[in-house]
Amino acid sequence: MINSANTSRRGFLQSMAVGTAAVFCTSTGRAHGYLTANDRPVFATIGLRNQGWAITSKSFRFADFAALADVDSNVLGTNVEKTEKAQKKKPDAYSDYRKVLDRKDIDAVMIATPDHWHTKIAVEAMLAGKDVYCEKPLTLTIDEGKLIEKIVKQTGRVFQVGTMQRTESDQRFLQAIALIRAGRIGTVKKVTCGINGMESSPVIPVAPVPEGLDWEMWLGPAPKVDYRALPELREGYGGGVPLFSNCHYSFRNWHEYSGGKLTDWGAHHVDIACWALGATDTGPSRIVPLEYKLPVEYKDGNPVVADQYNAATSFRIQVDMPNDVEMIITSEGDNGILFEGTEGRFFVNRGKIAGKPVEDLASNPLPEGAIEEVYGGPVSANHTANFTEAMKSRKQPISDVWSHNRMLEICHLSNIAMRLGRELRWDPVKREVIGDAQANSFLSRENRKGFEINMG
To answer: I need a surface site. Which of 45, 115, 178, 195 has the fewest CB within 10 A?
Structure first.
């Protein structure tokens, strides 16, 4: 079901994609086209904890970082030091991202703030003439995605979403799509996305705001609330912050700032599933929350308490996709994607791709160039390389905003269905819930006064 808007979208992407096959990464480690120090793009990163540093550090080969911004002075200071050590030049440091957007020497920004900040910064960055690399999930709501699409088209900026499984993970996900396109499992009938569950929390009390954190700016567009935390610290990835809080690392457990596992891991695996199904121009027809557990009581789709995590802890959701394909999104089982067709099945995640169709490759390999055909040309060195190649050619990169928003609509709708406790029927042309005004009210969210998007 594709309307004229989708046709225009495809034409726009195709016009931006011509010449993709010509890009590659040189032996110097720079993206194609950036061959001298003076020719390298100038970047800034906004939001530096965890994934913010991850995307920055893997981008030093391709760009020079002139500035970093974060609302936590401790995080900012640490990453300025690490960046100076890595690139032998100290970047400027800002607590206010708007100072970054004011600079004319910065070509692109990398955004790795909590999700509720993504759209405001991304839109303002594009209007300020910057290309954008933004972490997933791109948006907090479906209507935010529509706004970003509008501004990308209006400004012509290059915009990469950080769904790096499209480029990285040793090309396992590209191989999975190539297997499906080659008919190695026949007609796809079912796809299961295992994305794990979230933990619940004890009651989290109001606590003093940590020194160095600008809590007002951290909240930004989200509702004004007290900072909450328990004293126990998180260990491992994202460690050094409270294990239970409504801030650093744990923000994904709160609908005020994110969408739980549905928009965290779902943004990765549902993306690959939709790409494999050829469903990046359309969407589902029905979302059914078969089984799920919310950690707190909800009324009219909203949590009734403010002192505990509120994103779903476990779930099994049925999504009716085009061509009678059933998608299951589940917190149970292995993290990864199981594709099932009329002639076989196989499983893929970041660590492996397994099943008889994969074993059969030993005697019946994929056609030459099958992976490159999926990608649209030689696979880039990493996701940032693809972004800088697109900046040079002015073509949209592999993780474009349109395909991302289409699959993210599934994740957002799944959360809405669980919050309301009922199935939803979706019109993928109008991009609205059919016959359910209450559900449609969750497609957008008003920014807090003083943090509206500056449309210039």
So the answer is: 178
